[in-house]
Amino acid sequence: MAVEKDCILWPVRFDSTSYAVKVIVGATTTTCALTVTADRNYWVSGDGQADSSTNNGTGDLCAILETCLNTHAATTGFSVSVSASGFLTISVSGGLTFSIEWGDAATTLGPVIFGFTATTYNSTGSSLEAPNQTKGIWYSDKTRSTDSRDRQPVLGAVAETISGLARVSRLSLPKKTRELGWQFIPQAKSLDEYAAATEPSGAFESAWLNGISKGYEFRVYDDASTRTSSSYGLYRARNINEPLTRSSAPVRFDIALSCARAD
User: Fold this and answer.
1) pLDDT above 70 (res 258)
2) Do 122 and 60 share a structural domain?
3) Do 153 and 113 belong to one domain?
4) The pTM is what?
5) Residue 148, domain CATH
6) Beta-strand (E) ranges in 4-70?
7) Per-residue pLDDT at 1
8) 21: Cα separation from own chain's centroid
9) Rounded CA separation 166/158 (Å)
């Protein structure tokens, strides 16, 4: 049986509420509109969750991009999916061919979010695979070395009298905490300076600096290949201490992430 490999998704946020992407299907050109809420969390998850304000945002950008593309004048047969490691595929039904004009002046939607660059991408047949990893994912291709699971901390105090009688005062049960650790992570998955060309934001440093250390919610999936609305835990960092340290193995890093439930 295959060993499950986990991943962390960190949110993508937008400054504006409306973006456009120029798409050509056959001989028909349409500038499709994509609508979002500024400063809300969005996730390149592929789980189909609708855009909502719950927990500062649940919207699946794969589903949102699919809805956008399906406003095209020539077809409503687009589908968008993402792999466990974060690579996007756009397909269209009906044997059609298409191109995404990411570099066109009419396109205002950032291509990097979805693993593209500012140029034109033509489908191979009726399918188009992004050359790069999407934004907002850390996929180490390894399993965790440590995991406390969700643990319930207790806030309170214990007082003891001279006679030895103890009195306990439990004040509250705060959010559950979790300690996560990964060992011997390759430097390409650890630091931005070593990140692979096809994974420009795939190092843990990107997740840390662009999402986790800002106090944004992030998702922990025990199995990266299972992406549903209930297959992850939602967390925030418990401190902003540097989580990356040099491993005992050459050119490897260890990661220790302390977090608390955010839902």
Assistant:
1) yes
2) yes
3) no
4) 0.93
5) 2.40.30
6) 7-9, 18-25, 28-35, 42-43, 59-60
7) 46
8) 22
9) 7
